[in-house]
Amino acid sequence: MIRSYPSPAPSPNSLGVKLGYALGNMGKSVIWASFESFMLFYLVAVLGMDPLIAGALLAATLVWDGLADVAVAWWTDRRGRSDMLTRLITVGAPMVALGFWAIFGLAPGPSRIITILAVIVCRLGYTLCDVGHNTLMVRVAAHPRDAATVSGLRLIFSAMGGALVGMATAQGLTGPLAAQRVALERSAALAAVLYLVTLLTAMHVSRRLPSSVQTNGGVDRPFRALSGNRAFIMVLVLMALQSGLTPLFTRALPFFGQAVHDDASWAGRALTVITLAQALSLPGWIALSRRYSSPDLLKASHGLLLIAMAGIGLGFPETFHLAALVVLGTAQGGMNMAIWAMLAQSLRGGGASEALPVGLFLAGIKCSAGLGNALFAGIVKLGDLQCGTCQAEHSPLLAALVAGIPAVGSVIIMALLGWQGRHWLDERPALRAMT
Prior knowledge:
By secondary structure, this protein is mainly α.
């Protein structure tokens, strides 16, 4: 049997390239966090859409977004041009900015058709940018020791974007509905500009980096080649669970704030605490990544999530909620850094496809997130939580559901890691080269 070994690692990229590239995550995080944390509440409580219709819209666009990621990534690899990734950002970034502003800035129109079209345009543009920007990570983190560092920097900027969404939510969901719409429109305009600036900056600093593709030998059968990468398959499974189930509490923040704290704007303050805790914890996670493997850090972070969900779901006094939010943010920092580092590590060593593996990974994130949105929309409808100014009658049940479902997801992930963990480093020679 002939054993293949990874080719010598390229030189690390400069800190300026890593920072400029990671900056793109701030703009992306603003859009993603907006859809994940309060878009359903905005469509239901502010615009008056039926929860199931709003949930179906968000779920369908996320699933379509994910499937389109695979198609765009495959097409990008087939084109074989090293500048295709930056071209995707050039086309997609204006679409995202325009669509996101239109969701809040234009009149909804008959049957909310204008808002629905704006959501679709925003998600289509997000697909193009996401494939381009996230695939560039493989080039930016081409050196074996850069995977955790680049992943950590991305998440620090993501946390900054999430904190901005938290502050905008706290302001935008305060006062009468008319005032809320004005505040959200202004915030959406700023978010659109921020997205454009950060994504174009990331594109500029990484536009000349060499492709990680080493050969075109398997380009006609890219799916067959990836099916033999067991580490990559495991990353897909873990991310699907992590994206579909564990963020349910974050998706529920405005509804949880209204039902438990009698204040929907509590969601903004809570999201700010979560994202700040995430950002402050990342240097520690990055330091730990130099001593422990990414799967070990993923298990530890999901253990912290279980602690946070226990503090939220077991009926503890409200003073415990702040501590639980801090622990939750710390857990999210670790789990997100670990899973992205595991993705980069599983793809190291080159191959016939550069964008397709990342497209499949993003498809897993978005399709599972879409299903998670549909699940929570059903909870909103079942619990009669669509009123943005009334308090739910069954807040203990809501707390139990939005904390219990993420806990179940974390338990499954930890069980999978425990079952597969001992084989992880043996599956990919490129990972052994890091030790």
